[in-house]
Amino acid sequence: MIFTETPLKGAFLIDLEKRGDERGFFARAFCAKEFAAHGLATHFVQVNNSLSATKGTLRGMHYQLAPKAETKLVRCIRGALFDVILDLRRGSPTFGRSFGAELTADNRRMMYVPKGFAHGFITLSDATEAFYLVDEFYAPEFERGVRWNDPKFNIQWPIQPVVISDKDRAHRDFDPAWHLGEAS
User: Fold this and answer.
1) 122: which of 2, 100, 149, 166 is 20 to 30 A away, CA to CA?
2) Handedness of CA 44, 46, 51, 57 (dihedral sign)
């Protein structure tokens, strides 16, 4: 695997290192030793799969508060999506900055999303399917979300969304007391 750190420290794009011949190719999509060598999570407890029927479907920006904060390893297995991460780590020099990359079934690229980041994506084609590993069990009482177009963050999406869930549309403007679990 080829690990490329994003401008947001601790977050990586991971490309497969393909070994091919006339049959096709072989590549590792996960290796605990290689992940550990880069200081990344190696124990995942849940695998999630989402299908978005329509191009322009936006999902996000989701995360969970500590002690149930999640690390995610995201890959597009059908279609194409623009994957976005937002640094919400207290005291981080890149707090409030986002980074996005195109993940497609063809490029097989993965996004490594560390704890303390919000995550979301918009589909770039119909029938797009995402598959991701998570290192913490879903805990609804620790769930939070940042609205996709919150002016505080000015996330640059490549297309306008056409489908957004009511839940994602209703995320409130950023408020540290609620979004980060801080006392007001």
Assistant:
1) 2
2) negative
- The domain locations on the chain are 2-179
Enter the tokens of residue 51: 């299908």
Give the burial class of 92: count Cβ atoms within 10 A of its Cβ; 0-12 exposed, 13-18 middle, 19 or more buried. Answer: middle
Residue 81 bridge partners (DSSP):
103, 123
Active site residue 63: no
- Give the closest residue to 153 by CA, choosing from 66, 88, 93, 60: 88
Residue from 62, 112, 119, 171 carrying the catalytic annotation: 62
Q: What is the CATH number of domain 2-179?
A: 2.60.120.10
Q: List pLDDT tens digits, range 63-83.
A: 999 999 999 999 999 999 999
User: pTM score > 0.85 for this model?
Assistant: yes
Q: 63, 112, 132, 171: which is the annotated catalytic residue?
A: 132
